[in-house]
Write a structure and sequence with these properties.
endopeptidase fold (from Nostoc punctiforme); 5 helices
């Protein structure tokens, strides 16, 4: 047995053939590169490398994106403008429709009021005629019975003098003029307006309405009438119509809108009573 048999060997382990080949290839490549560089000569050793690497450009892509973005923005703006125009048009149309409706409602309301006034006036005229007819029937019955309210034309004066003549002449001069409720002359009257205007000719200021005029003087019998007396229909103090007795069994009064100021016989519409102011 050798005296070194138990001493371990200090040699490095053998490398594998593949690793050795790889390293040999790398080394060979490096030496080849150095050899080529040396062969180019010293004339090229100091020249700097001037070759540049051209990077890919993005200009075309960015321009396309910007153009698309601008087009989208313009489209949004156009849509917003169109929407605003549509809203403005709708608002304008709504205002026009609202005004048209308000005008139509106002017109309808005015027509309804006018119709109501016409109907009320027709009813009032009918009620007035009915009341006068009733009063005439009552007076006729009383006359037939020989009562003290009997009225005859023989008891009436056919002529007037002084203030009475002035009142009568004024009343007769108004015949044919219009009847207008609330009117006091000179082209139109209502019943009490005519009586008031006639008495104003002689300086007498009568109350304005028929109710008060029916108590403005002393009560006189219908059988003892004188020209210038105030005739009334209805109760004393609650009369609904007045006129002026002009003598000869006739009176002048502003009757209604259909007839205007007329001269009529007492038999046409007999009064309820009379008052004498003169």
């Amino acid at each position: 047995m050798s005296h070194t048999a138990h001493i371990p060997s200090h040699r490095k382990p053998r490398r594998s053939a593949s690793k050795l080949a790889l390293r040999a290839g790398v080394a060979g490549g490096v030496l080849s590169t150095i050899a080529v560089a040396g062969a180019t000569g010293p004339a090229h050793a100091a020249e700097p490398v001037t070759e540049t690497i051209e990077m890919p450009t993005l200009t075309t892509g960015l321009a396309s994106t910007a153009a698309a973005s601008a087009e989208a923005t313009q489209q949004v703006a156009a849509d917003l403008q169109l929407k605003a125009q549509q809203n403005a048009a709708a608002s304008s149309a709504a205002k026009v429709a609202k005004k048209a409706k308000a005008d139509a409602d106002a017109k309808a309301e005015a027509e309804a009021e006018k119709k109501a006034e016409a109907e009320a006036k027709a009813k009032a005229d009918a009620a007035e005629r009915a009341s006068r007819s009733s009063a005439r029937t009552t007076l006729s019955t009383s006359s037939t019975g020989g009562g003290s309210n009997s009225t005859t034309s023989s008891s009436s004066s056919s002529s007037a003098t002084g203030s009475a003549a002035t009142i009568v002449d004024f009343a007769l001069a108004q015949v044919g003029k219009a009847y207008v409720s609330g009117a006091t002359g000179s082209s139109a009257y209502d019943c009490s307006g005519l009586v008031q205007a006639a008495y104003r000719q002689v300086g007498i200021d009568l109350p304005r309405v028929s109710q008060d005029q029916s108590t403005a003087g002393r009560q006189v019998s219908l059988s003892n009438l004188q020209a210038g007396d105030i005739l009334y229909w209805g109760g004393a103090g609650s009369a609904y119509h007045v006129a002026i007795y002009v003598g000869g069994g006739k009176f002048v009064g502003a009757q209604n809108s259909s007839t205007g100021v007329v001269e009529r016989s007492l038999d046409w519409d007999r009064p309820t009573g009379a008052v004498r102011v003169l």
